[in-house]
Amino acid sequence: ATNYPAAAGLPVLREAVQRFYARHLGLHYPLDSVLIAAGARPHIYALLRVVVDPGDTVAYPAPCWNYPFYADILQAHGEAIVCAAEDDFQPRPGALDAAISKASLLIVNTPLNPAGTVTPRDAVLRLSEAILRENEGREKIGRRPIYLMYDHIYWMLSFGVEHFTPCGLVPETAKYTILIDGISKAFAATGLRVGWALGPADVISRMNLMLM
User: Fold this and answer.
1) DSSP per-residue string spanning 38-53
2) This model's pTM is above 0.90
């Protein structure tokens, strides 16, 4: 109990997260795709460190949580896609297209902090298809893919509204999507500082190296 734990998290905990996502979200990830850290914040920082270079674009709908400051730390260009109250602070169809075409990382948070609104199924589906189309085009010209950080740490608190994930609707997006989650919100365990990320094993491996 007094030694350093495994850098990627205790295997029993990673396996529990793996089972939890399979049971409740229908998402089946290999253990190499599950990473544990001291809350969600370290995962967000590590992800930006491994997929964003200085000068790259990091895009996110606004209003939003602290994502712009993470872009600043990386000397990246933070691009806010401003959303209106009449749209429940969700992007209108096509509003993310221009950002997707140039960004290295797109950040989507649902249920949304601070508004509490949930991205509907058709919007998640459009987003997933847009990410796939963009990366198919980038692959043809040897350009790095755009990754999607899907911060859904409030998903278990979406009362009366169904929560959807890109990987659940379009499984092919799993190789570009990193899910950010943790126990602080739905499990009322803020002081324990336990969070996790699930995503493509190569990205998760590099994030682990950042956090070691």
Assistant:
1) SSSHHHHHHHHHHH--
2) yes
